[in-house]
Amino acid sequence: MQTRSSRLVGLDQSPIRTMTRLCHEHGGINLGQGLCQMPTPPQVLAAACRAIEADYNAYSYPEGLTELRSLIAGKLRASNGIEADPVTQITVTAGTAAAFAATIHGLLDPGDGILLFEPYYGYHLAAAKVAGLQPEFLGLTAPDFVLDEEALRAAITPKTRAVVVCTPGNPSGRMLRRSELEALDRVAAEFDLLVITDEIYEEIRYDGREHISPATVGELGKRTVTLMGLSKTFAITGWRLGYAVAPAELSSAITLVHDLFYICAPTPLQHGVVAGFQLPASFFIEQREQYTARRAVLCDALDRVGLPAIRPEGAYYVLADVSRLGQSSSLAAAVELLERTGVASVPGSAFYQGSEGDQLVRLCFALPMDSIEEAAQRLGRL
Known about the structure:
With 382 residues, the protein is an alpha/beta fold. It has two domains: 6-40 and 281-379, Aspartate Aminotransferase, domain 1; 54-276, Type I PLP-dependent aspartate aminotransferase-like (Major domain) (Aspartate Aminotransferase, domain 2), CATH 3.40.640. 40% of the residues lie in helices and 15% in strands. The strands form three sheets. A seven-stranded mixed β-sheet has the order 2-8-7-6-5-3-4, sandwiched between helices. Helix 1 runs parallel beside helix 11 (330-341) and helix 2 packs antiparallel against helix 9 (267-276). The longest helix has 24 residues, at 281-304.
């Protein structure tokens, strides 16, 4: 009997899971896994509890609650500059990962090329492989991670059908500038590419940076699927709630596949995040201030011990240069860092195909401040 699908060839457990297990064994502080351990807004929790108690526990529409989609449309208009019909262009999904899976299965065919920017989010690569797509790569050079138009054009092959844009980036923390998105617009039009954006960290940004949704630049809107999520913004990673926004002719396919794979997003939890969309702007300002303080503590600690930090512009990860440790691989460096300091990270090789990540590790600072301060103190053991 066959025990594993051929679609899984070359897929193994994520290094994030490996480091999490090792962290538990060492009694360490886990800055590896991207678990958001910030407090969930009480209004969101209370609304979800009320929905459960009111017995809103059956399926919702496959595309999500009508009220939630209307609120999403209002938010997109006010905050992102995206005009979207809540009936035909928005699908509430069982997490942003589900939105990505529904998009690539609904809009692409096995054998199609899908271009990822390195460093990439590992789920995008794994999901593309399982869908039978042909991953292609364009390296963005640290520490600036600038998207160059000619390099992008040169990376397109006869098989390329889609490009994935993660802004703010995971793990880089880079936020793409308007000029870069204008270049993407030109190349996407030239090669008739589908653009899939992952903007789940849009609200987590620093130093007054503006988040620009690619769908608002040039003619990208007509060829872009915008993926956004609620897990990071409201600290509800276990609830699995996200959404996909696309032109109606693309959105119908995404909704169909999401229905087939997941049926719908969790109904009472959709009611919960309705309250989240009604939070005042001060919530997001305070949230950014909290993350900014954590970023400073962790990056300063890394700099002090000779592991230079690439300070992120958005999201809640930092890449650190671990070449000082003298290891031949980022996995060995991450293990040494854990053994010597009790701080777990993710090997940089998890985000690259080649050797570019061999002297990098990723650390997450979406933890309580006392955990970040303890991690900073432990790093001083190096």
